[in-house]
Amino acid sequence: MRLVLGNLFRHSPFQSTLKHAEKVAQCGPLFLNAVQAYFAGDRARFELLKEDIRENEAEADRMKRNIRGHLPAAILMPVDKSVFFSFLREADKVVDCIKNALYWMSYYRLGLPEDIQRDYVLLAKEVGDYLGFLPEMVQRGHTFFSSRMEQDREAVKEIIREIRFREKESDDLEKAMFIRLCADDSISPKTFFIMIRVVETTGDIADHLENSADMMRVMIAR
User: What is the full DSSP assignment across 140-154?
Assistant: First the structure.
């Protein structure tokens, strides 16, 4: 006999996905603190925070593999499994990008003008704050899949709209930084190259979060 959706979701993979989303979101404040420590010249604190993020990335990756590996074949999901896995993959890539941005910064002591440092701290804060929407989106999605109420669906869509809006703001900050970097002839070629990679990788954080929101939009579509 076909199980009703409410009983089925007692073992919903979205419960574990929420824990994964919370792990990803924890990296937002750590990322900002690491960037601030770097530009303050506190290398020891930067390295400790970088290690914390590396551990979070490893734990989030373990959680992702566990969700994928322990999803019962017979489970009745209200969404296409391939879309669900795409959502999970994009959310997981967020932490990869945070880790990679900090690794780029660790390779060389970047000599940057203070105004560009401030611009990048602002970008890191924008992106870090942005990650807080991920657990909320997953939680509201879980509620909608359990209730199928239109008001719950609209609540998910509102979070998705906010994520898309914030991604555009991050994109604008990223482009402004490229312009500033290219216009400043005092920046050494090595610093310029590394900082371009850092900014690009930071922008990818927002891109992957928006991609996860797009997958959620597909999952809640009627």
Answer: HHHHHHHH--HHHHH
Instruction: Tell me the C-alpha distance between 62 and 69, whole Å.
Output: 10
Q: Which tokens sit at 108?
A: 């060389």
- The span from the CA of 121 to the CA of 6, in Å, is 44
187-214 pLDDT, tens digit each: 999 999 999 999 999 999 999 999 999 9
CB 219, CB 90: distance < 8 Å: no
Tell me the per-residue pLDDT of 51-63, one tens digit each, with 9 for 90 and over: 999 999 999 999 9
Question: Encoding tokens for residue 93?
Answer: 């890539």
CA dihedral for 170, 173, 175, 181, sign (positive or negative)? negative
Please, what are the domains in the chain? Answer: 9-220 (1.20.58.220)
Compute φ and ψ for 86, nearest 5 degrees: -65, -40
